[in-house]
Structures are given as structure tokens and as C-alpha cells.
Amino acid sequence: MNNHDSTRAATSGRQVSGASTTARAFGDAVADVLAAVGGNARTVEELDAVVDQRSASAVLTEQRARLLETGLPGLLVPETSGGSGVLEEGEAFAALVAVARAAGAVPGPDIAGPWAVAPTVLRLAGADEELVSAVASGEERLALIDLGAGPRQTSPGEPGSSADRGAAADEEADPSSTVRIVDADDADGVLVLAPGRVTLVHDVPLTPASSFDPTRPVSTVSRTRLGGGDVLAEGPEADRIARVARAVGRVVLAAELHGTGQELLRLAVEHLQTRMAFGRPLGSFQALKHRAADLWSELSLVGSLVDEAASRLEKLLAGDAAGAATTASADGGTAMASADAPSGGISTGVSEGESADPAAEAPAYAAAALSLAADTVVHAGEEVLQLHGGIGYTWESPIHILLKRAVATRGRWGTPHELRRIVATQFDL
Amino acid sequence: MTDETARLLADTRAFLETNPPAVATEEDRLAHLEARFDAGLAAVHYPEGLGGRGLPRPLQSVVDDALAVAGSPDNRPTRNVVNLGMAGPTILEAGTQEQKDQFMRPLWTGRHVWCQLFSEPGAGSDLAGLATKAVRDGDDWVVTGQKVWTTLAHLADYAILVARTDPSVPKHRGITYFLLDMKSPGVTVRPLRQITGEAEFNEVFLDEVRIPDSMRLGPEGAGWKLATVTLSNERSGSGTEPPRESGAPGNLFRAWRELPAAERESGLRDEVVRAWIRSEAIRLTQRDVGIRMAASDPPPEASALKLAKAENSKQTASLLMQALGERALEHADGYAFTRPEEMNFDVGGLSPSYSYLRTRANSIEGGTSEVLRTVIGERILGLPREPRGDIDVPFSEVPR
């Protein structure tokens, strides 16, 4: 798959600890496929093709087709609805994180929206079986848009009262404003998470935009055009689903960023080992070696936090599935209600030592993981570009592809500042 | 349950039958631990006859859990870091049968206190540049030099010591490892006062101290290799999972919650939350590394973790001083010149100003952050070494 297996092993060095054999095998298999097709947009011509043709480019089309073959769309779908069966084993999120790590290293299509968040929303909303199995088989690809959680019902001035906003929260004051949507221009439908409503809208009039990360096409759409569609959930139930959906999206993006960071570090190490200057390899200079070591150290911290968030999310969703598929049960409902950005004020005691309910903290851990991953990996991209000198500034070098991915990902599913508000509220900081 | 686990459990229960865990005095406690050592239940990965059974290290938890449930006293592993994390593994690796028989039992129980005579005023990170010399004289070695940063030297019964036995060969090859009786004539211990006012450490002066050759550990000239065994265990000494919000970061978050709401609404909040996330990521990484360390030797990641932890403790302690504003003008602990009787690297629960001062040492003690970065760069990432001027020349010709 590449010539740098030893470096890759050194720079990744992660195992999905405790993941079941099937879940791990599934994650590894999809990750291998991603790594195999990863070279696609690595030539200047191919990258130009992606930039010029957006989703229709042969590169993204092929990558999407290869991912469908792996059965990835069925990962988070129950087996009875055409899913792959991994979900029932209880470690589907460990597998998903492995897939996302691999996806972060290659210039491929969005995974978080269509294959992680969409199936989760449909399952929690008790959506039509036919739709769910169409998503599981890959026949139907749904894009996601998050219009934010709306004003929270908390007293003014309370910390965290505006914590849990979606990506488009800043613009919610103006209903006619434009919102952006990732990798959606040939999707079969758009799932819209709005305050008090989860809907599935077909025939959304998308306007192609020029995207900062060329490998993930971006479209714009006016909020007013997202109003119709089939209602999947309403009221507090819709908000509950949206909170879990955001957490799922955040964990996937955090894992992707971790993969992006590992790939950046691999490239930096390769460069420092081989590039000669002043009669010796660059990597022998302490000033550069120590910067690479810091990057490795920082990235290694991201992995454990992402794994923890995934494992807590698994528990949260398992609790929900056990309670009820469509309506909030006593158990699942309680866990969910306190899940994201609790408005009721958490006692200080909860934050000292372990919490009583790891699942209830899952959304805060997801926010924490994405915040750390975004901080760390954007910084890694900027550092690795600099460590490459002039080469790192060229279109030919793959560094800018990874850097653009990291920077663009930072703006999805909550800005780093919003993410930290969620953490602050959960842990009374 | 495997046969081995079942046998260990049965043996542990049998041990508890004959050695009730209720101990009244310190002497009782030590006697209980000695009986446990003799039953091969001290550390199952130690060899048979030396407190263990030559079993895989993870099986120790079977014994420890059963003993903990019964209320059996342990050997205070966090306080006996030099004994258990440094001297013990090195003696097991290179000691003669006589040395192992003489030292391992009192070392493991804590009846003997050990200290480490490695660092010197002229050799810290560059430990192989040490200049304390040992000259052969009949059946003895005569040792002269100065050691520094020696924890518990004033209480120690024995020391692990590295000294130069041959200055005519390159620096790493001329070092020999010794076990030193701290009551030997010529050993002088003086407290070394640090920025907190206390003296957790000592300077140790060695003035023509005679060490019998039977107390040499390993072959002459093999001291450097053995020192790396000692130090790799030092860095792994704290590989357990701490609770959330412990140590210096825990001090920050607890104090932060107690600040008036208006002060918490400052721009500092974002930094505090970042610190919380980072601290939790470090704790989880420590847990994951700990799981792997229980199963095998310390992975190189242990060095990386030490780096991240040290820097994070410093940052969070500094952030707390900043958050306290003018309250930080006071230092209630004072700067009294005291001499602690046990090692305590954990500032959790201690005052913000003391924690701030004490954590300055975290990125220096047990391997500086700079050395750790080099270890990560070269051993984990495989980056080339820096050209050096002290490798292939006799130590006596190295500029110092």
C-alpha cells in the first residue's frame, strides 16, 4: 500500500484496543481500500481534475464507488434493515474511527455525513425501512446540513447558554441567509437538522461553490429553500437526535483529522530523513528533530481521546437502542436529555474523578476530541509545510491537500470555540 | 480461568491463611511482606526463589487484587521508586546469585532504602560524561567524586552508583556499575536546597570510598549499558492510570470553579477548557500506554508521555497563578528549609504557588524535555543522529 510501512507503524502506532475481531477486521479492510486508492489525486493532473470537476471528477467518483463496495454505508445500520451486522457487536464506532483515520490521509469523499450521521439520524428517528436499507446499500446517499440548535432555554448569562450551536448558528438570525453544505451536489437528498425539526429534503437547489478543500466539494443554499421535505422528527425528540448526530459527526471528523495529522507527520519524517543540507540529513539537526518530536507527541494524545469519545458514544447509542427505537424511554431518555451541553447545571462533584454515567458525557467528549484534533492537526499542517521549506509551498507537494483538509474540517460541526463551550458547560469550567 | 491463574489464587489464599494481613507495627508489616516474598508472591515475574515465579508480569494483578481485597499491606510502590523501579530491575538483570540473594528481599519489602548516585554537577543530561573515578586497589575499588540530585540519600542504606573506571577509552565504555553501602567511610551527604526552599535532594561527596569488588554489578566497563536499564525503568515508573482531574491540572480546575463567576467570564476560560481537554487526553494516553506496559517492557511512548505530562503540569500550574490575579502575591507555604522524608512528585492538592514552583522541575527531573524530544526523534521517528565529537575518542580527550 505504500513504501513507508515502518514509518507508518511508528507514526500511527494505534490499535483499536478492545475492539471485537469483526469490527476491527471491518475497519482494517475499509482502511486498506482507502489507502490503496489514496494515490489517486496525488498527481498534479488529478488534483486539477478534482478542482475543475467537483464531485463528478473521476477521482472522487471512483473513490466513492470503492467505498460502497466495502459495505461502509451499512456499518451503522441494524442488520435487520440491511446493515453489515457490525453494529450489533457493539463496537461499530471503533471500526468507524479506524475507517475515518484512513480517510483522513487520502483526498476522498465525505464519510461523516452520508455514512455515519445519516444512518444514525434515520435509526434514532425510526425512519422508513425502505429508505434505511437504500442508505445501507449505498443506493441512496444523503448529505447533511446542520442549522444549529436554536436558542437554548436557559437563563440569560448562564455559562454555556449558546454552547451547542450547529455550524450555521451564526447566521440563524437571518432566515434568508446562505448556508454551506459539504459533498452534496450529487447526493440523493439532504437531511436537515433544524431547531425542533429533523427533515429529509429532496431536490434542494444547490449552487456549486469553489471549495477551500478541493477534495470535498462545497455548495451553497439559501435557508428558505430548506423548509419543506419529509418530517422525520419534531420537538424535543428532534433536538435530542440532532445532539447525538452532532456528536457522531464530531467523532468521525476528529478521527479523520488524526489520520490527516499522521499522514502529515509521515511526510515530514520522510523529508527530514532524506533531504540533505549543509552536508547532513535535515533530521539530524536538533532544531528540526525536536519540532518533529513535538508533533508526534501532540498527535499521540489525540488518538486516545478520539477512542474514548467513540467508546462513550457507543455506550450512549447502545443505551438508546435498548430503550426504544423511536421514542425516549426512561433510561435512554434520561441519558440523552442530559447528553449535550446540559442546561441544568452540573454539580462540581461530577467532574472530580470518574463520572457516574460515561455515556451521558459522550457528546462533551466528542466535542473535546474534535477541539483537540482541530487545534493539533491544523498546527501540524502549518508546521509540516514549513519543515518542507519551498517544496511544501508547491502545488505538486501533497502537503497543501492535507493542510486544506484540516483547515476546512475545523469549521464543520461547530467551531473550536463552540466545542469548548460545550466542554466548559459539561464540566463546569 | 487458566490453570496458572487458579494456582496463583490458591497460593495467595494459602499465604493469607498462614499470614493474617492484620499488622499492628511497622515490624509486623515488614515481616508480612518478607513472608510474601518467600512465598513467591512479591512479583510473579521475578525469578523463582527471588520473590517470584518467572511468570508473565500481567499475572501479578491476580495476586495484588486478592491481597488488596484481604487488606494485606503493600510495599508502598509509589514511595519506593528507586528500590523497585531502578535498583531492583538492574540487580535482577546483572547481579550475581549472591548479590540477588543478599539484596532483593530487603529491597522489595522496603526494609532497605536505596538511592541513586548517577548525576553529577558536570554530567546531567550527558550522563555518560560523568567524572567520578573508581580505581582498583587489591580486592577493592577506591571511589572519589561528587554526585548530585540524590533523593533520600540522607536516609539511604544502599546506593546504585556509576563511576569511571577507564578514562582511556571512549566515554560510554569506561563506566562501571557498583552497589554502595552508604555507611562506608568517606561518604558525605549534604542537603541541596531548591527553589521551593526545601531540600528534597542531596549532594553526595565520595572521598576515597572503598567498595569491595564483590559489590561491582556486571562486568567492568558495562556500566553504561546497565545504567540505561535503570533509567528505562525510571521513566516507566509512573505508568498507572490516575483519576480524572488529578495532579497539577486538577489543582487548576478545582481552584477555577471556586473563583467568582465574573472572573471566570474572562478570556482565560478558553485556555482553561483547552487545558482540561489536553489533560484528559494525556490521562487517557497514560491509561493506554499503561495497558501495553503491563503486558511488556516500557514502550518508547513512555518517554513521549513523560514529555507531555511534564509540559502540561507546568502550563496548568502557571495558568492557575495567572487566574488567581493578585491573590498570587501570597505564598502561604513559606520558604522554610525542610528535608522531606519521602519522595513525592505529585503536587495534586498542594497550594497553587508551591505547585507552580515545584512543577518547574518536572521537565528537568527524570530526563529533560530536550533529551526526551531527541529520544522521540531518533528512536520513534527514526531521524538521524546529530554528529558528535565525543563518541570515538578517549574520554580523557573529550573537551569538558
What does the model show?
The complex is a heterodimer of chains A (429) and B (400). With 429 residues, chain A is of the alpha+beta class. In chain A, the strands form 3 sheets. A 4-stranded mixed β-sheet of chain A has the order 1-3-4-7, covered by helices on one side. Chain A has 14 helices and 9 strands. Chain B has 3 domains: 1-74; 114-233, Butyryl-CoA Dehydrogenase, subunit A, domain 2 (Beta Barrel), CATH 2.40.110; 236-367, Butyryl-CoA Dehydrogenase, subunit A, domain 3 (Up-down Bundle). A 4-stranded mixed β-sheet of chain B has the order 1-4-5-8. The termini of chain B are far apart. Chains A and B meet through helix 1, helix 8, strand 9, helix 9 and helix 12 of A and helix 7, helix 9, helix 10 and helix 12 of B.
Labels describing this entry:
heterodimer; A: 429 residues; alpha+beta; Butyryl-CoA Dehydrogenase, subunit A, domain 3; 2 domains; four-stranded mixed beta sheet; three-stranded antiparallel beta sheet; 14 helices; 9 strands; 52% helix; disordered N terminus; B: 400 residues; Butyryl-CoA Dehydrogenase, subunit A, domain 2; 3 domains; four-stranded antiparallel beta sheet; 12 helices; 42% helix
What series of H and E elements makes up the topology of chain B?
Answer: HHHHHEEEEEEEEHHHHHHH
- Overall residue-averaged pLDDT value of chain B: 93
Second CATH tier, the architecture of the largest domain in chain A: Up-down Bundle
Strand line-up across the major sheet of chain A: 1-3-4-7
CATH homologous superfamily caption of the largest domain in chain A: Butyryl-CoA Dehydrogenase, subunit A, domain 3
Number of alpha- plus pi-helical segments of chain A: 14
N to C succession of SSEs of chain A? HHHHHHHEEEEEEEHEEHHHHHH
How far the N terminus sits from the C terminus of chain B, by CA atoms, comes to 59 Å
Return the structural class of chain B: alpha+beta
**DSSP strand tally of chain A:** 9
**SSE-based structural type of chain A:** alpha+beta
The largest sheet of chain A is: 4 strands, mixed
Percentage of residues in strands of chain A: 5-15%
Count of folded domains of chain B = 3
C-alpha geometry of chain A: globular
Query: How many structural units, i.e. domains of chain A?
Result: 2
Question: In the CATH classification, which architecture of the largest domain in chain B applies?
Answer: Up-down Bundle
